[in-house]
C-alpha cells in the first residue's frame, strides 16, 4: 500500500503530524457484527458508508438501515449505536462546526429549508465527485498521511464539493440537526446543555447577558430557550420509550423524575396519554419504520 515516494520519515517529522486525530477524518474497517457508538457524542460525526450494511440507533430513531453509498450526520450530544453487518468500512468526518466563514454563511442560508421540512434521519447518497474524493482520502489515510494539513485541506474540499454538486435541499437535510443562523452559539448550546441542570447555568457558561443570550437563542433555534429545553426533555423520553425491553420505572429513574406519579402527570400534560400508552405508540412506530426500511 505505501508508496516509496511519500517520504514517510519526513512526513512523520512534521510538527503538525497527529498520532491521534481529534478533528478531521478517520477510515475505519469493521469485522462482522462489530459495534460502535457513543452515549453522548462529543463531536458532530458525518459518516460515509463505503462498504457493507449498517444498523444504527440515534436518539429516537431506532434500527435504521444504511448501505454502502449512503452518508448521514450524527449530531453532537446524540446517543447512537451502530452495528456493521458483515465486513464493512466507513469514513468518519468529525468536527465542531465548519471552519471557513463562507461555509458558515451557506449553513446560515439553509435554515429556511429546515423550517419547511420534517427531519427523519434519512441518508443522502454519495455520488461523484464525492466518490473520487473519498477514494483519495482513504488512500492518503491508509498511507499514514495524517497531519493537520491533510485534514484541514480535505475538510475544506469536502464542503466545496458539497456546495458545487449537491442541491441546497440535500445539504439542508444532511446537516439539519446543526444548521442555524447562529452556528457558533448553537454549537455552544449543543456542547453544554447536557452538562447543566437549568437555563440559568447555561447562561452563566455563555458569558452573555440574559437579554443577549435569549435573543441569540431565538435566532439560532427559532424558539425560546424554555421551549427548546422542554423539547429536548420530551425527545429524551421518546428515545427511551422506543428502546426494546425498556420499563417505565427505568425511564423515570434514568431521566431523573421524582416519581412514577409525577412522570404520569407529565406524560398526560405533554403527550396527551399515559406512560404505558406512550410506550406502546413509540414501540409500534419504531416497528413500522423498521419493517419499511428492511
Automatic annotation (TrEMBL):
It comes from the Bacteria. This is Helix-turn-helix transcriptional regulator. The lineage of its organism: Bacteria, Pseudomonadati, Bacteroidota, Bacteroidia, Bacteroidales. The keyword Transcription regulation applies. GO terms for molecular function: DNA-binding transcription factor activity; sequence-specific DNA binding. The keyword DNA-binding applies. Keywords: DNA-binding, Transcription, Transcription regulation. InterPro entries: Homeodomain-like_sf (IPR009057), HTH_AraC (IPR018060). Residues 183-281 form the HTH araC/xylS-type domain. Transmembrane segments: none annotated.
